[in-house]
Write a structure and sequence with these properties.
homodimer, about 425 residues, alpha+beta, Rossmann fold, 8-stranded mixed β-sheet, 5-stranded mixed β-sheet, 16 strands, about 40% helix, elongated
Chain lengths: ~425, ~425
């Protein structure tokens, strides 16, 4: 028979079971952390009508999208979890309670040019809080609290949650009357860390900004100091722009409540250069960095938006949310060997029979499983060496051996695969040790 | 602005949060049960190369598949989790340990004609054990054990796991020399329960089978009695077909070990009519019915196959597995109001502030969350009635109220939303009650 070559598409992550165990643990920790803050689960389809998904899109997104016909329908695969949320909230508005706090963890699709560390299928882990017409600014302070606890759950201690408010930048542009160039300026500012101060100035000059205006921009984005010093420095600029002053008030309120949420000053900072590119954010914005692995980029980002679903409804639905790109994060942590210690096997015990009749082995496994101990019986007729090799390869921590002697004495022999120690015990004693 | 109408494709299940919580609980129970048997997780892409996915397919499957071009690639969405498993095992053969025990829970896609209770996107929850060249028959007895514990985990007590062996039917056809009509005959037999004995005989006559042959078929499928009586009756047929006798030996061995795995006789039976249609099974086959909800059909089916990946490799990879179609099962249970009692909210507590400053409310929530109690703070400035209505709609079991008095006395007022009782307590006492 002609064989087809089995292969996986480039840009699609496919893990071996041992890595998958780690990946799933991260996913479950994120989910559990989100649930501790009372976020509700939703699970929208991966396929949607193309016109629904693309109501808001354009440019890059449209080029990257997986879009196809099925029968008479023009379909597409979701490219994020925000558009499906907007759809969902509009569709089920009357059945939902607001503020609507939802999490969604699922795969999204972008047909990017494949390159190392970029994926075409990847998990996003999103939380959002959607208000009905209005949403208290304290919600903007709860987001860093969720980030803080989630990143800690994942095993990281040294990280920084960076916050800014887009209104400060927008207000600055109003103040120096360069609103029409704001998108370009923001894009340049966003690169400060990457290209350095001199290059930022050069790029701004290319936009034909007057020197004095460039000076004001640089003064603004170069404000240094501790959080309260920065807030004071912003105050001291004495800008008259209403947008600017609103942004400043919001940022101060967020900082105040972030502290009340119990986040230490060492774990967050105000970073005036964060603009979150061309995204649809209108107020608070967030980026989160693992300080030992800055090269990964932001591991959790998001922000406040005035209007979630304006393409679907006239209702005003302001919201705030953040997202973890889990597939990329996992890939990078794995590459940097920065994965946190974790359980490596599913089964905690492998039961091995030295006699042909596997009755006792099966009975022992059934007893352990009733005690909620994940257990596997080795059922194949192989040499004892092969059986231990199997446990070894799967990193199963305990092997229970049942031979003639154990059968006669109603005992089992328990081998600790890490230490190599083994002892003959009653099943009761064995269960105690394993637990 | 022109609005796009937000809508979900027909045949795609989209749940409200309260239903989603129930759905996720079922999914997690299944996962936990699979893990207790030591199955390893894998997570293959939803998109694959069309030639890889369709290597084995044909007929109905090809018509239903979501297939499309992206750039130069001919792609398709997976329509089950078995083909991706075959691909995976072949691809990573050298890195896997055999027997390879894997579970996968994920969405699959079939563009069926939409009708009530049929879905185009649905979750399958699969386990399979793949042997390298051979696989002990005891594995066939472990499957019912996994089914038994999983269905019990889902909260059902009254169910029957039906088992058969395809070799019995194949052997019967050899015995009466009607092999060339076996596919048609099996299809008819499979309908016994639906269409009744007389119609089965009529259909068999339409195949131009001689009366004596029809008699033998009916004798076979009408064997009645308890499990051991059935096995004895099969023995008594004294068929000479080797296939038949091999099937009988296998079935006897499976029954023997199913009992050793601790499954009571009341929960399984030998059902000689089960053929699993045109599937690729070659030995043991399973179907599972909830006795109070027979109309749902089999909720967990599967079987033994000689060769998992013959379209990809010359290696012989025999396996045995079962699958739960979770989306359909959930839909049907919901429709029949047969869903088992379960937690209905994510948050266990809603913290509500009666004073403008929400500092204390946030602090209380942070304390509860540290105690792993899922907690939400109501942050919007609404009337107290609206806040309680919110807790009520989301079925959050406890509300903690913080007013002037509580602030002064460093207490909180805890309201049990089910009983309506409320008392003023220290935070410590409150945590104890909630836990």
């Amino acid at each position: 028979m002609n064989k087809v070559e089995p292969r996986t598409l480039p840009g699609f992550m496919e893990l071996l079971p041992k890595e998958q165990i780690l990946f799933n643990q991260m996913k479950e920790k994120i989910q559990k952390s989100y649930e501790r803050f009372g976020f509700l689960p939703i699970d929208t389809p991966i396929i949607e009508m193309a016109d629904v998904l693309l109501a808001k899109a354009g440019g890059e997104t449209e080029k990257q999208i997986y879009r196809f016909q099925k029968g008479e329908n023009d379909l597409a695969l979701r490219f994020d979890l925000t558009v499906p949320l907007a759809k969902y909230v509009t569709q089920y508005y009357n059945e939902l309670s607001f503020p609507f706090r939802r999490y969604q963890i699922g795969k999204v699709y972008r047909g990017e040019r494949p390159q190392k560390g970029r994926f075409r299928e990847f998990y996003q882990c999103d939380i959002d809080i959607i208000g009905d017409n209005e949403l208290n600014i304290i919600n903007d302070a709860e987001m860093p609290s969720v980030i803080y606890h989630t990143i800690k759950e994942l095993g990281f201690e040294d990280f920084t949650i960076c916050m800014n408010n887009r209104k400060l930048l927008t207000g600055l542009f109003e103040e120096i009357q360069v609103e029409e160039k704001s998108v370009d300026i923001m894009r340049i500012i966003d690169k400060l860390e990457k290209i350095g101060k001199e290059n930022v100035i050069a790029c701004l000059k290319d936009l034909e900004l007057e020197d004095e205006k460039i000076k004001k921009i640089m003064q603004f984005i170069e404000i240094e100091g501790a959080t309260d010093e920065k807030l004071q420095a912003l105050e001291n600029l004495n800008f008259t722009s209403e947008t600017f002053n609103q942004g400043l008030q919001e940022l101060k309120e967020v900082v105040k409540y972030v502290r009340i949420f119990g986040i230490p000053d060492s774990k967050f900072k105000v970073d005036l250069t964060i603009a979150r590119g061309l995204d649809y954010y209108t107020g608070t914005v967030y980026e989160t960095f693992l300080n030992d692995y800055r090269e990964i980029g932001s591991v959790c980002s998001g922000g406040r938006y005035d209007n979630l679903a304006e393409y679907y409804t006239d209702r005003k639905l302001p919201g705030v949310g953040v997202s973890i790109g889990l597939t990329r994060l996992f890939y990078k942590l794995n590459e940097l060997q920065a994965m946190q210690e974790a359980q490596k096997s599913i089964a905690k015990v492998l039961v091995v029979s030295m006699v042909d009749d596997k009755t006792k082995a099966v009975e022992v496994a059934t007893t352990l499983r009733k005690q909620e101990i994940p257990t596997e019986v080795y059922l194949e007729d192989k040499k004892i060496k092969a059986k231990f090799k199997y446990a070894d390869k799967l990193e199963i921590p305990y092997v229970i051996v049942i031979g003639e002697e154990e059968l006669q004495n109603n005992t089992v022999t328990l081998k600790n695969m890490e230490t190599g120690e083994q002892e003959t015990l009653t099943l009761e004693e064995t269960i105690k040790i394993i637990k």
